[in-house]
Structures
1.
Amino acid sequence: MNKIYQKLSIGLIVLAIFGLLNLQCSANKNDHGFDLNGMDKTANPTQDFYQYAVGNWVKNNPIPDEYSYWGSFSILAENNYKVLKEILESSASDTLAKKGSNIQKIGDFYASGMDSVKIEKLGFQPIEKQLKSIASIKSKSDLINAIAWGHKLGGSPVFNIYAAIDAKNSTAHIATLSQSGLGLPDRDYYTKKAKNSVETRKKYIEHITKIFKLLGYAEVASEKNAATIMSIETRLAKASMTRVERRDPHKTYNKMSLSEIKTLAPNLELDYYFEQLGFGTPTNFNVEQPEFFKEVNKMIKQVPISDWKVYLTWNFINRYAIYLSSNFDEANFEFFGKYLQGSKIQSARWKRVMRTINNYLGEALGQLYVEKTFPPDAKERAAKIVDNLKSAMKNRIENLEWMSDTTKSQALHKLSSFGVKIGYPDKWKDYSNLEIDRKSYIGNVIIGRIFSFKRNMEKLGKPIDKTEWGMTPQTVNAYYSPTRNEIVFPAAILQLPFFNQNADDAINYGAMGAVIGHEITHGFDDEGRKFDADGNLKDWWTKEDGERFDKRAQKIFDQFDSYFPIDSLHINGKLTAGENIADLGGLTVAYRAFKNTDQFKNNEMVNGFTPSQRFFFGWAQVWENNMRDQALRLRIQTDPHSPGKYRVLGPLSNMPEFWDAFGVKPGDNMRMTNDKLVKIW
Ligand SMILES: [Zn+2]
């Protein structure tokens, strides 16, 4: 589950996995929503609850070759793909679809992407024009122009720009400038000295070399280009904030006027840059990383134009390689899919094209998807659980022993101001100005990208659209937005194993209930607590309560720092803190809500398990998964979410409710010692 600022591109989340509906995976679950066969009854729940609850599932569900991760989310996604494929295929074969309709656009986009014969024949010809334009850069102004153009096309060369909700004035948008420009997944990949990191850089250089050779460069020139790119990217990386630093919304909030930013980075020639971008010049900016822009300012002057050309060529080709002929596409997969994530083979072409369409026509596809899959009463059912969870959270806040009444009343005000979105948007995104045809796949991608960039930039100066969603309905996920102070649950997550009307209450509350509680708690985690009821970055805590919170949060940093999922790589307690706090808070609140159900009150046994025991099974089942070592390493370094296994072991070992349910005693693995015990919400 994610917490996203609206300023973040949703791409990250959509890419993560989207999925489901018409769930067929109930086949391996019993009627009550829990898969008894997935348990490993030889394991001891007091020592390793994850193994006990889902150990056999983990053993019996190896990762398919095309994936680097396999778990309940991916199974839902696969089911979902079948529904989406039907929509795509029927749209593509509907030659009578009205020109300009969503069906025509979806169908044409799909047909263009599936025409691999044409794509193969064209090689990199569809982007030759862009490559030539980079090659023709002669002056610094040309360079600025090319960067602006690169921003429109989505490669975020050198830095990034977008419109976001102003964190200190949540009724307005602000032009946001942020660090970017790297080809590897994180700035740390360029700086770490560990053997693994050194090897990754070597492989990355080899990969860049290979791509330049495919573009027709000689071996020596390609190697030289790779070294140039590495040197520019390393400089950008060293000036970049770490992911942990970027979690502090105060650090990344640096409001500046145009003249202030021009003084900070005169070489960016912002007047000219915005003229080239073509959306007018914004008056106010949030410069997320001023130090980064100081360095960029120096680099614009110091790095020779010839080197920038090489860098921009790479930035562009790296962004678009997956849409080109198979030699580019496969080389890209070899490095980013196989080497960095451990996948063995590429997904089928239709799945890759589907993901692309999901990025550029997400809500058009979503609208058709919802019509097919989302039952009208599902929204109501989910809304009821959300209400129950909000009441449970209210009760928790009122009874917190460590918080003063002053802060409590503020927290309750924030909770009562939460917006809730369920299923799908009331108002769908309008794609009428997006022209898609069957002529060129990459042409459609470029048009789609420019369209979404424009839609985002045109928000500047306009009021916030309250109906807007940051995820498509076909995404198996959920989020909290601190600047909107709202929780959002797309249609695709309101299904088994998260939620099902036939599942027993225990499973529904342990899974979907805890997910809802998780998103609610994001409003009060170490980052979310810094935003007020109106979505503004504003301190509403008394000094003492803030300190008490920090002390408690420190314990969860320490707890997760002590988990080593692979080799000597431990979870980054500070990077994952928000998610870990949300998991613990979400489960605690969901358990409280579950206690109000008749099933709990009557202590109904199912399959020999108590309601409380089944509640915790529900949570474990959500996180059952297998992950390749490479993907695990990548995620530990970049993902604010802890690996699934630790999302079970971590929070449960802090919960007396869990100890009681399974008879966990002091000294058992699943029980934190009193001095380390985390209790926040
Ligand atoms: Zn989350």
2.
Amino acid sequence: MESTEPYFKRFVFIIVDGAPYEIFKALIENGDLPNIKKYIIDRGSLNKAVSVFPSTTGPAFIPFFMGLYPGTANIPGIRWLSKSKFHAPHRFKRPGICSYMGIDGLRFEADLPPNFPTLFNFFSPVSNIYNLLARGCPPSKNLTRWIKLFVYTYAHFSHRWRFVNRIAERHLHQAVAAGDQFITCLFPAVDTFSHLSDIQSPQVLQTYREIDTAIGDLVHTLQKANTLDETLILITSDHGMSDTHTHIDIPQHLDDDGWRCLHYPKVWRQDAVSASMVSGNGMTHLYFKNNSAEKGWGERTPFEKLSQMGVISSLIELEGLGFVAGQSETGDIIVQGRGGQGRISCHLQGTDHGNPQSVTGTSKCSDSLRFSYQFTGTDPLGYGVHYKNLSSREALRKTYDTSYPDGIVQLWQIFKSERTGDLVLSAESGYDLRARYEIPKHRATHGALIAEHLHIPLATNYPIAEQCIRSVDIFPTVLSRCGHNVALHHIDGRVVE
Ligand SMILES: [Zn+2]
């Protein structure tokens, strides 16, 4: 490592599920989070980072712990379907269809790509609180493994999410006092209270303040043990959120158009020819059964064919739908808005454009990928600029403060996954894509590719100067600060200073 800064020996990783950057920043500026301000941000920095698409718990954890995009990891949603593996009579045999919200949640780790390390592999002893990506953490150190299902279920029905956070706080305190070198602690209540009320309701704001108190206690424990200076503390969120006033019923819309639609919980429907797998609920994957397929639902249906079928024009008229994205026959990604169409192409530096192989190129050569973006009519992503041959970093910088941050690379990465839909839909702010079977009803949303869902706080007790940071960069960056080099692993993130 070139930096002269000392390595950190310990790492405490705090995830505040569902904390949007703008709200977190405002709370800091208003003096609502005095401990986080004094002990973390004043010694280090508060940056605006960018999460991934889909911006939802589960897929959005993979960047932090493995440095990979959800598309690279082949986990493109909290629910997904694999067209090639989904077929009668064993259509529910894994991995045909999946919802990590249910019992499949236990399979999340098994679905992660093998041969990639996680943060847990670089430290010892480690401990984990509530976070579902615990690969590499010894079961006995996954401190909430027995109680999580019980307390989450209890809180789901009683709305006592404060109680769930309290347990997190207690385990965090004990793990720090015990001297664990790496501790991940997820606080779920900002997300769950936001879904129940709104993103700035009194109980949501109170939850932030309680987390701040827990951080104050954490710092005092580290001070007492004389290990504060050697401990890296990082506070972030997996995604932001926005308030919801209207639910769009995508399955009903497809049914009405004659595309009988499978969706959770109605995944047993007979004679379905389409499926909607929603995440967050601001995004959904749509799958269409290819008639020619003898086994499974066939391959990904090209955007051009879906357009001929009338699917695209019917969907894009739905009020509140931001865009519909699909993959062209050429391998490019097409983004359809109401007034225009965008096209994302990706190639390896020094090769021809439009090579279908190049779009699915592995992250081994992510530095040599070049992205282009063109549009006709009104730009569906609102950039208003045609881009040619941008590196991944340049594509991030150019789009960072737009309504669709990092949209070019994020749409490219999600289509790398075989489990991604023929179409990917993203809702506008104020809307979600699940009108039924969400109990209790959601009043706040995440999952979409919009700034409110993508921009996340990144508070660290050492300063990070880089202004444009992806959540995939956090994995190599913190490991580098702790004296580990991950250059040998072919990940999507890179070290930021
Ligand atoms: Zn949520």
